[in-house]
Amino acid sequence: MKCRKCSEKALITLRRHNASFCKEHFNEFFIKQVEKGIKEYKMFDFSDKIMVCISGGKDSLVLWYLLHKMGYETTGMYINLGIGEYSEKSLRKVEAFTEKFGLKAVIVNLTELGHPIPLLEKSVKRHACSICGIAKRYYFNKVAYENNFDVVATGHNLDDESARLLGNVLKWDPAYLSKMDPNLPEEGDYIKRKVKPLIRLTELEVGAFAFMNGIDYITDECPKSVGATSMLYKGVLNSLESDMPGTKHYFYNEFFRTVADRFRADSEEKTEMYNCAVCGMESFLETCSFCKMLEKMK
Amino acid sequence: MKCRKCSEKALITLRRHNASFCKEHFNEFFIKQVEKGIKEYKMFDFSDKIMVCISGGKDSLVLWYLLHKMGYETTGMYINLGIGEYSEKSLRKVEAFTEKFGLKAVIVNLTELGHPIPLLEKSVKRHACSICGIAKRYYFNKVAYENNFDVVATGHNLDDESARLLGNVLKWDPAYLSKMDPNLPEEGDYIKRKVKPLIRLTELEVGAFAFMNGIDYITDECPKSVGATSMLYKGVLNSLESDMPGTKHYFYNEFFRTVADRFRADSEEKTEMYNCAVCGMESFLETCSFCKMLEKMK
Description:
CATH architecture of chain A: 3-Layer(aba) Sandwich
GO molecular function (chains A, B): metal ion binding; transferase activity; tRNA binding
Oligomer: homodimer
Largest sheet of chain A: 6 strands, mixed
Shape of chain A: globular
Structural class of chain A: alpha/beta
Number of domains of chain A: 1
Distance between the termini of chain A: 60 Å
Binding site for Zn(2+) 2 (chains A, B): 276, 279, 288, 291
InterPro entries (chains A, B): Rhodanese-like_dom, Rossmann-like_a/b/a_fold, TilS/TtcA_N, tRNA_thiolation_TtcA_Ctu1, TtuA-like_LIM_N
Number of helices of chain A: 12
CATH superfamily of chain A: HUPs
Protein name (chains A, B): PP-loop domain protein
Order of helices and strands of chain A: EEHEHEHEHHEHHEEHHHHEEH
């Protein structure tokens, strides 16, 4: 197989684009897709202070690497979740990454703060992924606010987001469907804008980019994510994609082009925000979900 | 496993209803689901003349059997598609069925009319399923109009309709999404109301009902349907259903409860109908799709 651009030997074939690329032109393709995503959804510009949430996985490290390389003002933010060996491994990957590329990250350690995920899991009757999501969202918001960032960027890719869309579509919950936007506006004083610049790229493409560019990342799946429904949704979308390349991209993008507005209207009506009685941050409830969890733990 | 109702030995377990049933109580359950579908979507009542479209498969024969048994005024309508051995077999099943239950069917023979599906397939560049759909819809409308039926009933089940919904959702085409209703209103003078009374029942449940009630049907899949995308969609929904029983039903029903209206509005704006220049029936184009196909064949 030859590169579509230069006819050198191709390293990767992308069926949904009906194209093969050498390393150089795959990188070019990849960066263009990120630029396109940022532009299409007006995510940020060079005047913005961007906080990149990193986990030690391929998506977030690739995102940080790229935004930094493209000249954006970025700071990494890592949450040590306290999930045993998995968290230790991922922290080591983050440290190696920041050292290799001369970058600095803010680190939040849930164990030091007294509420690592396994401890929260014991007192809160929810799937670990749901608990972890609440904790992450809380610290993303808190750190971004306290450090005066303009925007919070996460490494969610096309597989993540099309799977989440499928999950929300199977339940048809308008409130969730109205929160799919890869550029979620800020809310009140505390909650900063959230963006997902990798939404035009698949898991496979991000992994290939990391590999070709010497970005080492944790390949283990989180041990707590076993049985997560998102895995089921990714599985069925992969099976459709394999028979009909381009399915994920079309499903995800067409949603925003022709459908999302139909759900936005009533979410605007419903949203009423409070300041959490415990921490003071914006919340949909009088006490925010995170502070409620901590109360249950005590 | 024991029947939920009478504690006799159960013949079938329905995971999505968390219930097992003996033959008698499965039949009771099944009929209730059909009644519920008819009532919920106001499909028809005992004063309506119902044309039941039958193919020789389980769904349409079960539907006809039940509507007749429930006391509705029904006539079967069978189209011999002229697809070799498959069509011959299905016709024999229909003849055996009508004889066994003392019923009468109108029969349309595409070979005698000069355009069996395989002949149309040679001149029209489309998947056979699409050609067949156009031809069937045309004769359903024509026969219903000429024989003065009030409503046209088809045997589409929950698997068929949730798969169709999934296909339409993956493409997000508002025009298709607005045509999902299991009770489609009549259009103009020629096109009668179309209803799908089996939408609360799965393929497996309909098959079990046929088996338990001595309804013999053709089990072969149509040889032309190989590679039809609907099969892919059914496959992924079955895989989700197996991990999360009830997924299909919730996906399908919740669509009508909370979403369908959001797509109905613009379909009403768009619909402009003509009378086909060739056959005179209502059409979205100046010449209807079926007459266009026949022209291409000549």
